[in-house]
Amino acid sequence: MMDSHKQLFLLSLFLILNLSVLLIIGDIRVVQGEAPTTKMFVFGDSYADTGNIKKGISNSWKDPYGITFPGKPAGRFSDGRVLTDYIARYLKVRSPVPYRLRKLMPQHLKYGMNFAVGGTGVFDTLTPGPNMTTQIDLLAQLIKANVYTASDLSNSVALLSVAGNDYSHYLATNGSTQGLASFVASVVNQTATDLVRIKELGVKKIVVGGLQPLGCLPQVTAATSFERCNDTSNTLVLVHNNLLNQAVARLNQQTKDRSSFLVLNLYDSFMSVLNHPSTHNIQSKLRPCCVGVSSEYSCGSVDQNKVKKYLVCDDPKSAFFWDLVHPTQAGWHAVYNKLRTMNALQHIHH
């Protein structure tokens, strides 16, 4: 009888020791970086694009874009990093490879992929680029081709930056004031449909940016010599964001974990930085750093003789806006820091 107890004891001890060894080996594997990498999939517009827009279409591939990072134009609509880069930093992954460059950088596919294209929207806009539905189609095709597996997607985050271009397109094509309310509703409804579709593809956490204060963009504040934001434009933004928050709350109620979808509060984070610029070492809050020498030119413009037709401020690090629409790297960094202090990012992690 004693022998069988002894055997059981030794067998248990053997199993415990082996299990401990396995756990230790498992821990070593994690330390060595073999744990599954969080993948980030990015959809949307120029606030998130890191190089998908074609070179002939946009000034973002021309000097002086990219002067702060990476030191030359790389397709980002800024002097340096954009929102995508900072959310990737928060997730401790490399900024995902632009879809257009995926075959040139296959070693970076493990970090996810960026489908965002400057100028695009939830619906078609004046920019000849894939709208949100088409961008999501591209991810679906990669999943079908086994570039990304179910296990890859189970450890992934999606970032969406959309809708600003939908509204500028609506206004540019003479959309009526009376029709604006129903257009806002259609933009938010389509965004919600897109969020659900990304979730159905297997992405675990989906983060959608609320609209930034469009009335504070230099292209709008130019009318007041960059002195003040336009309240009418910002009221439209608040209507959009209110509807988006409601839609996302409903989607979360319909999912098991109740926290699959998250709205990134870009409105409050932008406004906080713009209202307290010196806190973030910003000296020029509404005046853009890079502008055309006259209204017919813009940042990055050159004439037929390749003569520069733009001016750049002395210190991009002290300006919030880079051009008429986009923040500088310093601006995005300030917004990112504000999002962190607002605890807006802590729910991104699984």
Automatic annotation (TrEMBL):
<dbReference type="InterPro" id="IPR035669">
    <property type="entry name" value="SGNH_plant_lipase-like"/>
</dbReference>
<keyword id="KW-0378">Hydrolase</keyword>
<dbReference type="InterPro" id="IPR001087">
    <property type="entry name" value="GDSL"/>
</dbReference>
<keyword id="KW-0443">Lipid metabolism</keyword>
<keyword id="KW-0442">Lipid degradation</keyword>
<protein>
    <recommendedName>
        <fullName>GDSL esterase/lipase</fullName>
    </recommendedName>
</protein>
<dbReference type="GO" id="GO:0016788">
    <property type="term" value="F:hydrolase activity, acting on ester bonds"/>
</dbReference>
<dbReference type="Pfam" id="PF00657">
    <property type="entry name" value="Lipase_GDSL"/>
</dbReference>
<feature type="signal peptide">
    <location>
        <begin position="1"/>
        <end position="33"/>
    </location>
</feature>
<keyword id="KW-0732">Signal</keyword>
<comment type="similarity">
    <text>Belongs to the 'GDSL' lipolytic enzyme family.</text>
</comment>
<dbReference type="InterPro" id="IPR036514">
    <property type="entry name" value="SGNH_hydro_sf"/>
</dbReference>
<dbReference type="GO" id="GO:0016042">
    <property type="term" value="P:lipid catabolic process"/>
</dbReference>
